């Protein structure tokens, strides 16, 4: 049991602080009296064969995972390629005609979307157009 001195309590110290003043030196003495622990053996510099085996297992697992992902995606990619080929065969002539009508993209304003959803591309006026050499015509 800890005895409290009345002078400490009047000085503003709580009973907890007084108890800690007694317990702290006791704890320091016990730590200094404890026998030193034996050190662990230094780690060997030779590579651990089980670690190498673990890494090879991780590599094999990652390869298997990626291979299964590729096997799942490959048919879909082939379908996508066929779809793009069909779209280009169908849209190719229309795109060539459109490119034939547009002389230079620099002669047009950026596309605008109207409130009704229509998209328009306005042609720049002759004063706004850029000459082929990059100079503005005056």
- Count of extended strands: 2
- Structural class, please? mainly alpha
Please tell me how large the radius of gyration is.
41 Å
Question: Share of helix among residues?
Answer: 55-70%
Across the major sheet, the strand order is 1-2
The whole-number mean of residue pLDDT values reads 75
Question: How many structural domains can be distinguished in the coordinates?
Answer: 2
Please state the overall shape, judged from the principal axes of the Cα atoms. elongated
- What proportion strand? under 5%
Q: N- to C-terminal separation?
A: 103 Å
- The number of distinct helices, counting runs of at least 4 residues, comes to 3
Give the uncertain stretches in residue-range form: none
Order of helices and strands: HHHEE
The biggest beta sheet, please? 2 strands, antiparallel
Give the topology.
Elements: H1 6-10, H2 15-33, H3 49-101, E1 112-113, E2 119-120
Antiparallel strand pairs: 1-2
Can you offer a commentary on this structure?
The chain has 138 residues and is an all-alpha fold. It has 2 domains: 33 residues, no CATH class; 66 residues, no CATH class. The protein contains 3 helices and 2 strands. The protein has a two-stranded antiparallel sheet. β1 and β2 form a beta hairpin. The mean pLDDT is 75.
